[in-house]
């Protein structure tokens, strides 16, 4: 009898899996761990359902897929301390952080589509999330598959963007987004606590990552983060900006996402080298707290513009 059950995330999606039966005990089985890694490589994202809401299990699930990567900023809350090392807390008190207007609604903790570490020369392999304090409505985390996006992009844009490098910089301010910003977006309140990081980021070198890369399986991945994109390497001109904007706009139009509504017994891992993710935002008067682990692992294709040297802060996970 199988120790775990694996099902598609949703019948109409080419990515994602739902897995039940994962416990600290089942993770001791070598075949279970191998199967989890195979499913992750094939599907790009796993929703673990009915798991024990415990930091130790989050750490052990994460370690199945690689070593943990700690956050470089000491002031970021460590959720587990010495008991569950590697778990950070993401959240804020009501009306404490950014507040934006999206689709006519005021929300906080909204994040546009992106991949983590785009502003660094090295990416991370994956992120693992679980919800500690949920919200009444919204607060959903969205996931989209870069393999699906590559095939969905028009042949004309695919031909123009393939082989290009995209420039990224550490700028967390949404109103500064140059590409793919939603129509009608308004920043009502910036995240004041992040302003020092934003100002410091302006002094740092820009990273370059390929718009399209090829997995060992031969599958091509459209891997463009509209958030924090600065332009196309060697084409920072009106024509290059027009091309990148067209790619981002079509990406957002043709995306087939999965948005996850969180329960306390859910845990999600996604492949940061393949997937984009976003957050829908929620009522600014409600708190929302997530626990996250980050898994090391890079594809070796990114670099800093002009062979510049990076900075410790660029290891920050966003």
UniProtKB/TrEMBL annotation:
Q: Tell me a Gene Ontology molecular-function term this record carries.
A: dioxygenase activity
Origin: domain of life: Bacteria
Name all TauD/TfdA-like domain ranges: 6-294
One Pfam family matching this protein: TauD
Record's keyword annotation contains rRNA processing: no
**Which InterPro entries does the entry mention?**
AtsK-like, TauD/TfdA-like
Q: Does the keyword Amino-acid biosynthesis apply?
A: no
Cite the entry's keywords alphabetically: Dioxygenase, Iron, Metal-binding, Oxidoreductase
Q: Which family does it belong to?
A: Belongs to the TfdA dioxygenase family.
This one is known as TauD/TfdA family dioxygenase
